[in-house]
């Protein structure tokens, strides 16, 4: 009888732990709700503003979006994440904030902003893989950027609008992956 009760208690614990983790993921896998404070969509939206500003060769708007992104990272509530997810998120965000800050203080240096944007895009990709996007988004790739090494970016539209070359080569690239 003790073995049965112990087994039952362990089963309930594991089921409730799994359910709690699934609920946390589901709670963050939301569509963008502008009123939802600490929603990962706020981070994604700031990143997309940055991407679009670089695609339009607008360093001033890119800097503003970079600063907005830093604030979105700082405002994100991690309490619904598991300890493991929190650790991974912290590792991603520490790096991403640094890149967003560099973009924010270099409004007059678009090439420098684009260098940091390439690294930031990898971090945003990792964050989306961790938390979900809550909507359909695209992982695009520019094979020519970085001396032919290539670089990814995240986009909300299927049309290629290259943030690495802006207006000079706006359609250079391809969709590599679709995420939700």
UniProtKB/TrEMBL annotation:
Pfam families: DUF3347 (PF11827). Keywords: Signal. Residues 43-133 form the DUF3347 domain. Residues 1-22 form the signal peptide. This is DUF3347 domain-containing protein. It comes from Pedobacter jeongneungensis. The lineage of its organism: Bacteria, Pseudomonadati, Bacteroidota, Sphingobacteriia, Sphingobacteriales.
């Amino acid at each position: 009888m003790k073995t049965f009760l112990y087994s039952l208690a362990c089963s309930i614990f594991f089921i409730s732990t799994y359910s709690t983790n699934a609920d946390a993921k589901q709670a963050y896998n939301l569509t963008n709700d502008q009123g939802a404070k600490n929603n990962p969509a706020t981070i994604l939206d700031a990143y997309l503003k940055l991407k679009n500003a670089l695609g339009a060769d607008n360093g001033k708007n890119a800097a503003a979006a970079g600063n907005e992104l830093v604030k979105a990272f700082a405002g994100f509530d991690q309490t619904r994440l598991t300890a493991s997810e929190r650790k991974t998120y912290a590792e991603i965000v520490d790096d991403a904030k640094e890149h967003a800050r560099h973009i924010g203080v270099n409004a007059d240096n678009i090439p420098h902003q684009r260098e940091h944007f390439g690294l930031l895009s990898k971090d945003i990709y990792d964050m989306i893989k961790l938390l979900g996007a809550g909507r359909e988004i695209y992982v695009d790739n520019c094979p020519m950027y970085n001396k032919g090494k290539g670089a990814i970016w995240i986009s909300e539209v299927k049309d290629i609008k290259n943030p690495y070359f802006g207006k000079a080569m706006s359609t250079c690239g391809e969709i590599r992956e679709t995420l939700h």
